[in-house]
Amino acid sequence: MPRPVWGGAISFGLVNVPVRLFTAVQKKTIRFHQLRKGDGCRINFKKICPLDGKEVGQEEIVKGYEVSPDRYIEITAEELEAVYPEKTRAIAIEDFVSLSRIDPLYFENTYYVVPEPGAAKPYTLLLAAMRRTGKIGIARVVIRNKEYLAALRPLTKALALSTLYFADEIVSQDQFEDAGEQYLPGRKELDMALALIRSMTKDFSPELYPDTYRERVREWMEDKAAGEALEARPAKQEEGAKVIDLMAALEASLKAAKAASPAKPKRKKTSAR
């Protein structure tokens, strides 16, 4: 079983539910190392001071904050601890809201919330009540000396806690002046776009969208390690955006979508008795 990253309790009103947090996502990617060409020697990185060109040991490195260009103040670990948020062991729910009211832009990292031994009853009660109401809890939690805003939401069998970005961390859309403000679609174009969206609508199943790039790279590297001579694919030359006939593109897209979707079986007519 994986190790928990945090332990504490969910608190709402006067109710406390002892829980542990487990990472819910394991990022998978292809990682490469830097090698010296020819002998495959792996390259190491050293921390060098640009003033004297000497390597700096870890014991000589301190934290610094830039107060103006090239002007820093040193911060000690003790000084930093003085401003850390209070180390609480609570996921303190402040409000309950509808999940649909939170833009996905705000979601950061997600954890599974698992009850401590003996806490199954209040945990299950909270899970059932949240599922019945369709609400999620907005809470504050301190993880590794950092305070987070978080969303506590019910899944099928467990609770999940997703840390959220704060409001001032989201880039405002107002700075993008050309984002769809200059064109008002016509009725026919809008109807075609709506029909296209309806024809492409289905239930979301994440297993239908595998990481094909990662699989291709892994297969290519395994073949290369096995000694096969492989040719690199020529890079595609990306052309600039073209001005298109919007209606023609919509009609062609809708036709292709209808052709790709399986035809619904016709109902047999039943004779009246």
Could you walk me through the main structural features you see in this protein, from its secondary elements to its overall organization?
It contains 5 helices and 9 strands. The protein has 273 residues and is α+β, with helices and mostly antiparallel strands. The strands form 2 sheets. The protein has a 7-stranded mixed β-barrel with strand order 1-2-6-9-8-7-5. It has a domain at 6-26 and 84-169: Beta Barrel (Ku70, Chain: A, Domain 2), CATH 2.40.290.10. It has helices at 77-82, 120-133, 187-199, 212-225, 246-260, and strands at residues 6-12, 15-23, 63-68, 71-75, 90-98, 107-115, 135-143, 146-154, 159-164. The termini are far apart. Helices cover 23% and strands 25% of the residues. The mean pLDDT is 84. Helix 3 (187-199) packs parallel to helix 5 (246-260).
Topology (elements, then pairings):
Elements: E1 6-12, E2 15-23, E3 63-68, E4 71-75, H1 77-82, E5 90-98, E6 107-115, H2 120-133, E7 135-143, E8 146-154, E9 159-164, H3 187-199, H4 212-225, H5 246-260
Parallel strand pairs: 1-5
Antiparallel strand pairs: 1-2, 2-6, 3-4, 5-7, 6-9, 7-8, 8-9
Helix pairs in contact: 3-5
Reading the helices and strands in chain order gives EEEEHEEHEEEHHH
**Number of separate helices:** 5
Helix content: 10-25%
**Global geometry:** extended
Which structural category fits the helices and strands? alpha+beta
| Cα Rg | 28 Å
Compute the average pLDDT: 84
Low-confidence stretches: none
Biggest pleated sheet: 7 strands, mixed, barrel
Portion in beta strands: 25-35%
Q: What's the number of extended β-strand segments?
A: 9
CATH level 1 class label of the domain at 6-26 and 84-169: Mainly Beta
Task: Give the strand order of the largest sheet, numbering strands 1, 2, ... along the chain.
Answer: 1-2-6-9-8-7-5
| CATH fold-level label of the domain at 6-26 and 84-169 | Ku70, Chain: A, Domain 2
CATH architecture of the domain at 6-26 and 84-169: Beta Barrel
Between the first and last Cα atoms, what is the distance in angstroms? 63 Å
